Amino acid sequence: MSAVAAESTLYDCRDAFAETIDALAEADERVVVVCNDSIASSKLGGFAAKFPERLVNVGIAEQVMVGIAAGLANGGRRPFVAGASCFLTARALEQIKVDLAYTNADVKLCAMSPGVAYGEFGPTHHSIEDIAWLRAIDNLVAIVPADPLETAQALRAAAEYSGPVFVRVSRMGVPVVYDADYQFRIGHAMRLADGDDVTLIANGTMVSRALEASALLAADGVGARVVSMPTVKPLDLDEISAAAEETGAIVAVEEHSVHGGLGGAIAEAVVAQRPVPMRILGFPGFAPTGSAEWLLEHFGLTGPGIRDAAIELLERKGP
Amino acid sequence: MVTTTEPALPQRIDTSLPREEQVRLLVDASRLIRRRNLAMVDAAGLGHIGGDLSATDVVVTLFLATLNYDPANPELPDRDRFVMSKGHASGVLYTTLASCGFFAPSLLDEYMKPLSPLNGHPDSKKVPGVEANTGPLGHGLPIAVGMAIAAKLGGSPRRTFCLVGDGELQEGSNWEALMAGGHRELDALTVIVDRNRLQQGAPTEETSALEPLADKARAFRWAVTEVDGHDHAALLDLFAGLPVEAGRPNFVIAHTHKGQPVSFMRDRVEWHNKVPSGAQIRAALEELE
Questions:
Q1: Do residue A74 and residue B81 have CB atoms under 8 angstroms apart?
Q2: Strand order across the beta sheet in which B160-165 lies
Q3: Is residue B53 part of a domain?
Q4: Of A135, B21, B87, B118, which residue has the fewest beta carbons closer than 10 angstroms?
Q5: Residues of chain B found within 8 Å of residue A54, distances taken between Cβ atoms
Q6: What is the CATH number of the domain that holds A28?
Q7: pTM
Q8: Across-strand partners of A201?
C-alpha cells in the first residue's frame, strides 16, 4: 500500500497547496484567497501573479482576515484563508467560532507551517495546540494531511464541502505515503499496514514515521496495524472501534500537544466504545527551540520512538 | 409584565413620497418601534433597552427608507447588507425586521424564550434579514469590510452598512477593519457609530477614551460625517448622499442618547441592560403615546 519505504524524497506540502489553489481558482471564479502578509510563506506568489484582484492581503491582522473571509462568503465568494497556523488559530479563534463555524460560513482555513515547522523560532511560533482549540468548536471539519497528494485532495474535498474546513498544510518535508490512486474522503481513515497486536494511528508528518515503526515492529515479531487518520473532526469511529476490538491496543501519534488533539479524540472514542490500553505520543508541553527534525527526535516522534512506545504498551496490554 | 403584544408596527416607507412626508412617517415609525421594543423586553424580562433606544432612529431610517432588499427573498445576491455589530441591540433589530416583513410580528413575543429563534443576540441562521452573528463585539465591521470587498470584486452596486456601538470600538479588530476599509477605498461601505457615550459600566471617555474619534477615523482614510442620530431628516439626507467622498468609506458618528427619549432612561448608564419594572414600562409607553 505504501510507497514510503521506496521513496526518500521529501516534499513541502505548501507546493501542493499552491498548485491546488491555482487550479481551484481557474475552475471557479468565486474562489478568493485571504492572507495576512503571508504571500511568500504561503507560497502564493503564483496566485498573486495570476489573480491579483482575488488575493485579499489584509496585512498582519488575523481577526480581520477571518472576519473579511466571512463577509466575502456572505457576498457569494469562496474564500480560502492562508496564514501561519499558530497565528490564524490563536489570534482569530473567536472569529473562527462565531463568524465561520456558528454561521456555517463557506470558508476554508489553510493553516500553514503547523506543528513545530517553525521549530527554531521557539514555542511562540509552534502550533501544537491548534487542533485542540478547533476540535472543541462545533461545525468545523479539521484535516491534517500526511503528504502532498493528501494535501491537494483535502483542499479539493474542502472546496466541494459546504461549510467551514480547517486544513493543516505542512512545511516540514514529508515523504510520499500514499499510492497515486489514493482517494481522500472527509471523515475516512485509511489502513496503510495490517497487524493484529497493536494499532498505530497517526496523521500529518507522523504517518510515515508510524509506517517506519510498523516495519521495525514486524522485525521484532509484532504485528502493528497503521491507520492514517487525516480527519480529526469528524473522526472515523468505525476504524477506531476496529482497532480497539481487533488489536486491543492503540498508539496515537501526532505533531501536536498530547492534550486534546488526535490522541485525545481517539481516547474519548475508545473510552466510550471499547476501552483498551492507549499511548498518546506528541509534545507534553511547550517545546524547546530546535529544528523540526530535532524536536521530533527529541520527543521520540520517530520510527524507533514509536516502536518503543508500542512495545511498552504491549506489556500493559498483556497476553 | 404589562403587555405581551403591541399590535401597531410601522411599514416600509414609499420613498417616492415628498421628503417631509417621509420624515414624518419615520418619526412615527420610530415611536412605534420603541413601544414594541419596550414590550418585548418587558415580556422577556431581559434585554439591552438603553442601546436599543439609542440606535432606533438610525435602524428605522435605514430599513424603512434607505436599504434595498426584498423580505420575501432575503438571500437576493444584490441586496444591500446591514450588519448590527452591536448585537446586544437585538431588540430594535428584531422589531424593525418584523416591521419590514422579514418574519411575523407575533414571533417578537418569543424574544429570548427557550428554543426561540430570537436569541438575545442576532442569529443569521435562524432569523431572515440578520446578516451576521454578532454579540461578541468587534465582529461586525470586519465582516462588513469583507461584504464590501465582495461587492466591489463583483462589480455590484449594493451597499454595506454596519452599526457599531461606541464602546465597541475599544475592540482592536475594529481598527484592523478600519485600516483595511480605508486602504481598499471601499466607498460603498458605511459604518455608523451609535455615539451614546456610555458603555456598560461608565462613559467611554472615563473607561478608555475614544476621542478624538473623528480625527482617528480620518487618519484611517475614512470620510467622516457627524450627525444627530435622532434626526430622521438629517439621517435620510445623509444616507441618500453616500458616498460622502469618492474613494473613501463612510464613517458616520451618530450622536445619540442611551435610552432616548424616555425621561428616566436617557443618558443613564444603568439602562444598558436594566429591565424596567411594570410601572416603568407603563411610564415609558406613556411618554411614547
A1: yes
A2: B81-84, B160-165, B189-195, B250-255, B223-228
A3: yes
A4: B21
A5: 153
A6: 3.40.50.970
A7: 0.96
A8: A227, A252
Number of domains in chain A: 2
Domain that holds residue B237: 19-287
Q: Is residue B45 part of a domain?
A: yes
* Domain contains A154: yes
ipTM: 0.94
Facing B145 at nearest CB: one of A71, A73, A103? A71
Inspect the interface and report whether the beta carbons of B151 and A64 lie closer than 8 Å. no
Residue whose C-alpha cell reads 415580556 in the numeric block: B43
Cis peptide, bond prior to residue B212, ω within 30 of zero = yes
At A136, list the grid cell: 472543541
Specify if B9 maps to a domain: no
Query: CB A74 to CB B125 under 8 A?
Result: no
- Compare CB distances from A64 to B133, B135, B180 and report the shortest one's residue: B180
Helix (H, G, I), strand (E, B) or coil at B207: helix
Flag whether B1 is in a domain. no
Instruction: Report if residue A181 sits inside a domain.
Output: no
Nearest C-alpha in B relative to A97: B133
**pLDDT tens for each residue of chain A, 319 residues long:** 444 444 579 999 999 999 999 999 999 999 999 999 999 999 999 999 999 999 999 999 999 999 999 999 999 999 999 999 999 999 999 999 999 999 999 999 999 999 999 999 999 999 999 999 999 999 999 999 999 999 999 999 999 999 999 999 999 999 999 999 999 999 999 999 999 999 999 999 999 999 999 999 999 999 999 999 999 999 999 999 999 999 999 999 999 999 999 999 999 999 999 999 999 999 999 999 999 999 999 999 999 999 999 999 999 987 7
Count other C-beta atoms under 10 Å from residue B275's C-beta: 15
**Distance from C-alpha of B231 to C-alpha of A41, rounded to nearest angstrom:** 50
Instruction: Tell me, yes or no, whether A19 lies in a domain.
Output: yes
Using a CB–CB cutoff of 8 Å, tell me whether A139 touches chain B.
no
> Residue B114 sits in a domain of what CATH number?
3.40.50.970
Q: What are phi and psi of A18, to 5 degrees?
A: -60, -45
B133, B156, B158, B161: best mutation site toward chain A, by most A Cβ within 10 Å? B133
What is the number of domains present in chain B? Answer: 1
Enclosing domain of residue A27? 13-169
CATH number of the domain residue A194 falls in: 3.40.50.920
